[in-house]
Amino acid sequence: QHQNLLRLQRQLDIFGLHAARLDIREDSSKLNGALAEVLRALQICPDFEHLPEPERLALLTRMLASPLPGLAPRPGITADTEKTWALFHLIARARQTYGDDLLGPFIISMTHSAADVLSVLLLARWTGCDVGQQICPLFESVSDLKAARQILHDLFSLPLYQQHLNTCQNEQMVMIGYSDSNKDGGFLMANWALYQAQEEITQIAREHNVHLTIFHGRGGTVARGGGPANRAIRAQPAGSINGRFRVTEQGEVIAARYANPALAHRHLEQIVHAVLLASAPGAKTHIAPAWRESMSQMSATAHDAYRQLVYETPGFLDFWQAATPLDEIKRLQIGSRPAARANSGAVTSIRAIPWVFSWMQSRYNLPGWYGLGAGLSAHPDLGLLREMYAGWPFFHALLNNTENSLVKADMDIAALYVELVPDQELAKKLFGVIRAEYERTRELVLKISGHVELLDEEPLTQNAVRLRNPYIDPLNYLQVEMLRRLRALPDPEGPAAEPLHEVIVLTINGIASGLRNTG
What we know:
This protein is of the alpha/beta class. The protein has helices at 2-15, 28-41, 53-64, 79-98, 114-126, 142-156, 159-166, 179-185, 187-207, 229-234, 251-258, 261-279, 289-310, 316-322, 326-331, 352-361, 372-377, 382-391, 393-408, 411-418, 424-449, 459-488, 498-515; strands spanning 22-27, 103-109, 135-139, 171-177, 211-217, 246-247. The protein has a 6-stranded parallel β-sheet. Helix 10 links the parallel strand 5 and strand 6.
């Protein structure tokens, strides 16, 4: 009995006495918009959102260092701002009623500057919920990942933010996004930017004696940071984990990883094992300067190839929308957020999940590999690349994850979707570019890894894919035919379309289940 009590006490010390903390997450544009309205109503600043960054930072610093004015109801406050204000009041009430352990960090999506973080701190202080409330910037785009070090340096250098950290046990959580960085810069550039950002974030936290936890915003697919968890953790930069690791689990993988208690135990065991290994003294891989230089060169070339296709090719947006079941995916009621951030069909406005989901369904799986072949082919020293694969866990995991993406893609099936594009001249031109890059990527990855076939290093996964694919292919044939019939209807939302929509939804579910990925 005493041993059982001791075990329970240790579990409480480690995990706490609660079910699950609730993280709060909001976009920086909404938060800044709400604060701008309040400052305008108080006649403090008429154009807060349009101030240069140094002026915004100076204004926020002055306000945080002074007594805050009262907030009686004022004209000019929109419903969106009222919702934001109500959110902070709810946080304050929940923490007062149930204690601080109820809530996790306040995550700021699309953090672009230190002022974005101070805006949240000011709103929290105004409503009395700032003390002990961790504020977690989320760096998502490639440019924001590159700016993360400077943003954190600016924050950690401010005495008022140091005071806030003291109320949080000197702990800072930083979230990095695997999804939007991939959509923004392509597979190779995103992975390299994420790796470098973690190194720089770790270094700046160490310089300021801040206890850092990096929160990995991973999805289920390789394009969104998925793949074997153990391998991914061990591939992180040295010192970036140090006993602290936080990661999202995509909804689609929860059942696969946790529905069976034995599998759940095994999965958690692998995560703990990897975190312990990565945190052990001396757990550091020597990264030769030539390796870093090669990665920088290859990622730049891959980035250019990706941007040229996705953002600079006329008609690419039309091709994507017609050659994938994107519109049908948007109709599905399977997420807590809309498919797009803004009322626009542009690639930049579409969220990463439908972006990846649509390419996965049509078997291009483009976000999981495109541009890598261009980057690798620009490096003439195959021997050096093989040396990097053998000696650098990051590069090894990168190529192995690419093999997973390539084996789930099928250019013959993807060619069926090309026939759905109204502009066939454009469709065949773009598909020719995509297929050539696929073949080049596959050839170079196999040459560097030394594998004869994709996933030779993971025979169980390789065999599972071979068994599943023959059952998935007919669903793709059926989906293409249903899409063709639906798009031929004069009214794609009319009564005649309903049975077609039902079949398309069934094929989407079947393909996602077979590939073990959505977005």
